[in-house]
Amino acid sequence: MSLQANVLIRQFSQYCTLSSADKEVLLSLEQYPVRVSAGQAICLEGDEPEQFFTIREGWAFSFRTLDDGSRQILKIYLPGDIIGMRDFSFSQRLAGVAMITDGVICSFNHPQLLSVFHRSGNLAIGFIAIASRQQAMLTERMIYLAQRPAQQRLAHFLYEMYLRLKRIDAVQEGQFLLPLSQEQIGEALGLSAVHVNRTFKAFRENGIVLRERHNVLIPSLKDLASLAEFDGGYLNNEVPSVFFVPQWEEDIRKEPLAHTTNLGGP
User: Fold this and answer.
1) Could you give all domains of the chain from N- to C-terminal order, each with its CATH number?
2) pTM of the shown model
């Protein structure tokens, strides 16, 4: 099992107990890796959502193109993330996806995904947990884009990226790679590239964030979190404890469904 494959397994292991069989089913989604280039479009808004993707290597982002030709970046995808879950029940893609860096992706289709749900309740839980957390991240972004000034937006974005990268062991001594241009960061935060540049300069002058090209160093995580007024509840990986009970699938098959809520009927 490769290191890249381990990233996907580690992602799911945060939300449920995975047996050896579960891991084999999960890794079956990565049988056909394809190497892709920075800037390459993986899918476009309005396309038929025939495939989902896992990222084994590299970074990507989802985006919407506005009427004036500008672009709003919606989400940053990291190794181990799954692309396209939001489009699962739609006939057209709601957003496009493009690579930020060179990378490796693996595609799978609706029948394969439905087969995973049928074969493993644990993996079904994992997919639902991941999709709900992706939605929570979009909700949080909407709030801070609407309510926060530029410095807080950038501080929040950087702290969030730090936490996400730390989970996949991509942070060393407070330093990590952020391979986005100032224009791309601006498209994610609703700021101009000039404003992003000025904000990074202010952070450097105050010793909050040091950025050299694509390398980011955070001298004080506490100071950055304080500036961002960061509440990380939406990134919390805690799930109901029953998700980690290995026998829950067998038990639920044996027990009849019981009504636990009375909505006023007889």
Assistant:
1) 1-147 (2.60.120.10), 149-228 (1.10.10.10)
2) 0.85
